Amino acid sequence: MEDRELYERAVAIAGRAYAPYSEFHVGAAVLARDGRVFCGVNVENAAYPLGVCAEKTALTRAVTDGCRPGDLVAIAITASPCGGCRQWLHELGLERVTYARAGGEVVTTTPADLLPDTFEL
Ligand code: THU
Questions:
Q1: What is the pTM of this model?
Q2: In CATH, what is the architecture of 3-114?
Q3: What lines the ligand 1 site, CB under 6 Å?
């Protein structure tokens, strides 16, 4: 699947976001090496810090269905990934990240470009 098509999947799912506080609806779609696609949205909570980002919900679905670091090829996100999610992209070994920059431009890059100089345990 092309990155552009994966991005369209992220746009399509964004409408299911539960974001009554920020009204910032985000969608994400993850492509596994075997062709499976896992989608996610942000889910907010009245206790604000408890909300989860769209890319985390997509990635947790992928891991729940058996994917491990190295099994995930690409992710598309309708927003620029937050700092914490960049660490998740690094951890799970994504190869490509397509996302919409603040101005609306859609770009494709790597987790290393988004989060350089990561630590290793
Ligand atoms: N959000 C995401 O879902 N992904 C990101 O990487 C950026 C931020 C969500 C979290 C929150 O529900 C809303 O956008 C506003 O920050």
A1: 0.97
A2: 3-Layer(aba) Sandwich (3.40)
A3: 19, 22, 24, 26, 42, 44, 51, 53-55, 79, 81-82, 85
